[in-house]
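# nightly structure sweep
# worker-07 picked up a monomer target from the shared queue
# config: single-sequence mode, recycle default, output format = structure tokens
# input follows
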Amino acid sequence: MIIVADLTGVVYTSGKVFDGLAVGRLDTENFLRSGSLAGICSRADLALLEDLRDVAQFVIDHHDQQVDAPYVRAINAQITRSGALHPGQLRTDDQQIGVGTRYGRHMPPALTDDGLQQLIDSLACDDVIENALDLFVELAKAQPFEDGNKRTALFVANSPLIGHGQMLVVPVDENDPRLADTVNDLLARAYINDEHDAVKALMRKHGLTALPR
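# output follows
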């Protein structure tokens, strides 16, 4: 049986790379296992970990569910529960929400529920790993929500994987911060230049890992 601590890698790396989590990997795992607050020094980090813990449990509980627009919205609602004004709500064009990158500002058209479903349907394939990688890159690129898009994309991508004994984490090397920077750089290239293959290759090589047995 999968437990939430088995997804420590997903929780820790998504929090660290995408939202500035200042808690270490071991303290993150201890929090997920027992609720220990050792190493957690701010209310912001605690709130982030609580949201990520709960979404990890949500994905475990629903990993055999088909990935569709309501499911993606439910994941975002969990991830941004403590940090967004409208958790799980799709952004609108008039909000002018985008993301700044070193290659320019990325502000794709807002998606409706139907548009989000069409995007998910367009990525369907029999290769579970390829589908997970596409879900991660394409959902992050689409920026459907007000906040938490990359974290949402990563947990959605893990939904089809964990039933196959695998998980997708953000490549992190505590001794070499350049690896995490490369992930964000290649994501920016996917956003601005439609260069998807490089970030998928990096995630496939350094992000795919077996679930603990």
